[in-house]
Amino acid sequence: MMADKNRESLGDRLKRSGVNTIDGFKRTGDGNELIANPLVQGDLKDKPISWILEVANDYEVTGHLIVGSSACSVNIQFGLGKPLHSFSPVATGLNTIIDLFTWQEGRFHFENGKQPEAVTISLSPEEIVHKGEAYVQDLNFLERNAISDMSFLLRPADKLSETDIENRLRCIPNINLNQHIDFFKNVYGSLNIKDIAEKLELKKYEWVSTAANLLRVGLILAPNGKSLKSADLELISTATNIPVTSLSGGTLYQSAPVQETQNDGLIQIERVLLEEARRSLNEPGTETMSSKVFLYMLDREFARASRFGTTLALIVFSIDTTLAGGFDPNDLARITAAISRIKRDVDMFGRFGDRLFGLILPGVDSNQAKVLVERIMTDLPPSLPDLGRYNPTLRFGIASAPTDVKDIDTLMKKSQLARLKASETGEPCLLAADIT
Predict the structure, then answer these.
(1) Who contacts 10 (Cβ-Cβ below 8 Å, separation ≥6)?
(2) Which of 234, 243, 311, 314 is deepest in the core (most CB within 10 A)?
(3) Of the candidates 122, 110, 115, which has an alpha carbon nearest to the alpha carbon of residue 15?
């Protein structure tokens, strides 16, 4: 009994961590000014759950976030910015937060200072956002292919060993390999997805992710026998021969090649190998991504911008010459390398189909993207004076989300139409708004 009395409470443990915050406020850098917590109340249609988790972590809030109506609400309990416990009328733990990533709207309010009542969540806010965004993408993938929990998935005719299965799954990052193998072994035509999930005791976000991954790598087939294997995953896995990691926000990252030091045993990044991996995503001899990799990156960046409510611009452009025979490949590579040096580090540059190029600009609208175009037009000629014999002509088309468009297909279409119109009129650059 004495041990129970002396046991440290959750609240005491949080205070003992040494972080000193005032409920509902955040101190500025100099510690003299308090900024009010913006989580007092709102709606998920304006402030999605990913935004809430980031703000809660930034403000190191402690309290209860109530999302939804009194009849059906989700209660997320934070301690110093970390979600430690969550429950709804039908579930408890991480899956109740993951489900909120699919909510398009829902009123919420924050009750400052309330301590967490339990600890049912161990992931960091960043890890939860990553899982939530992946869940939305996986769910959309299944729904686009008319696959639900009542669907009966099929196996291909090939006979695969467990090693073969592991090799197929190696391009999917941060997965529970045994869970995927167990799911695969239970796909034999007489169990639907719901049956398999119940047998393996999987939460919804777990079976959605597992089924989507197995379909994408071609280990299982859709109910109609169609393969949904993703060419992008195969391409990137083959090109790099190292695991590919998609972090929160959807940006594609290489899992860095590493080496073990001889003296202290610590793992360090081998920069030379990392640079080789980066180059392997580009076209040989250029600083531009291949068309398939570029389109994959565009899809990921658009998904990220949509989730966080940020802007994203796409520049599509052509490089033409009046010289008979066109550009020498080495000279064209020099032009693309020069453009790559002009763009920001966070911008992505690649082939857009066979004859065009594209630039993905995160956090930028059309007018801001035009500033980059003007810089390219100004800086490029003096950096390559010997290529003036080609009399190169660049025509740019720009579209951005959400200002100009709301979906990725229209973003691609309008940027191309703007470039075509620029070519027709002789303008160096046109915005999607210019041709509406």
Answers:
(1) 79, 84, 115, 116, 117, 118, 119
(2) 314
(3) 115
